Amino acid sequence: MSPRKSTKSPPPATEPPATAVAATAPAEAHAAADPAPVETRVVVQAETPAQAQAILQSIRDAQPAAAAEPGPELSVVIPCYNEEAILWASVTELHAGLLAMGRPFEIIVSENGSKDDTRAIADKLSRAFPEVRAITSDEPNYGKALRRGIEAARGTYVLCEEIDLCDLAFHRRALEILDAGRADMVVGSKAHPEAKDERPMTRRAATMVINGMLRVLLGFRGTDTHGLKAFRRDALQFTVSKCVVDRDLFASELVIRAQRHDVRVTEIPIIIHEKRPPSIHLFKRVPNVLKNLARLVYVIRIANR
Questions:
Q1: In DSSP terms, which residues pair with 157 in a beta bridge?
Q2: Which residues does residue 231 pair with via DSSP β-bridges, in sequence order?
Q3: Of 198, 120, 131, the residue nearest 164 (C-alpha)
Q4: Backbone angles phi, psi at 71, to 5 degrees
Q5: Bridge partners (DSSP) listed for residue 269
Q6: Domain boundaries, the chain
Q7: Rounded CA gap, 45 and 23, in Å?
Q8: What DSSP string describes 213-236?
Q9: 3.90.550.10, 2.60.40.3140, 3.60.21.10, 3.40.50.1580: which CATH number matches 74-302?
Q10: What φ, ψ does residue 187 adopt, rounded to 5°?
């Protein structure tokens, strides 16, 4: 007789165990008397670890994003080159004055190619005061340093300062105009009929000559382009992006282009008394001024850009 064959069925196949991943998700507090956040343990059942991670990511994406920290209202930009003698005292005095104004602010020290301890002092200031930021570049270039500071600014209003001036009176008057919506840009003019310019005669004469050339060659309408300025950042962002020159004429191009872009520009007189002689001698700046002026005439008048 042949042996009997077994009739037992094979054991049924079992499904692989699901992957369980625990996640912690915030939940609303149930009692008004206890405002502390309550954590809830969420267990995710999935077939594979990859699927579990995808589910967890969808939970995270559905959670409300944390509110962004509000930025400063005022951004004060100060280009600096070889200013070790006055940098610390000027910035600390400006910082105290801005604190007294009671408006959130930042001070951006834009050091550029200094050969003394300016960069180290700027870094020390940024560590000493949370409102101070230091940015640096290797090339001595006033216009590029000013532009970098403006582009790094986060405030509603940008104030372009000079380290040897730090004129809080200008800040107050300019902000009053901007707050009231009477202008988008305020220029502190050294050549205004009511201004008081206490610089040496050679500096005053140079201002008159360059402003005259800007009027004749580029159609500038005003009395001054270089120095203190305050403006609404959103109103000037496009204008800054269109500027093509740097060094001493970037500030002039900014004002001239603002006028050409129909930005509302107004001037106010200032009192100017420098704390020290210019860090770069006036006559050494003439070749770059003439070179950039010729370029600006070509771009604006001929190329119409």
A1: 74, 232
A2: 158, 185
A3: 198
A4: -85, 175
A5: 189
A6: 4-68, 74-302
A7: 11
A8: HHHHHH---SS--SS-EEEEHHHH
A9: 3.90.550.10
A10: -110, 130
Q: Concatenate the DSSP letters of all residues of 77-99 into one string.
A: EEEESS-TTTHHHHHHHHHHHHH
* Residue in this structure with the two tokens 């267990």, named with its chain if needed: 43
- Whole-angstrom Cα distance, residue 278 to residue 164? 9
DSSP result, 122-184: HHHHHHH-TTEEEEEESS--HHHHHHHHHHH--SSEEEE--TTT--HHHHHHHHHHHHTTS-S
Q: Tens-digit pLDDT profile for the chain (305 aa)? A: 444 444 444 444 444 444 444 444 444 434 344 444 444 455 556 566 667 567 657 766 666 555 556 789 999 999 999 999 999 999 999 999 999 999 999 999 999 999 999 999 999 999 999 999 999 999 999 999 999 999 999 999 999 999 999 999 999 999 999 999 999 999 999 999 999 999 889 889 999 999 999 999 999 999 999 889 999 999 999 999 999 999 989 999 999 999 999 999 999 999 998 777 776 667 778 888 999 999 999 999 998 88
- For residues 110, 114, 116, 120, the Cα torsion angle rounded to the nearest 10 degrees is 40
Tracing tokens 């950042």 back to the chain, one arrives at 233
* Three-class DSSP category at 74: strand
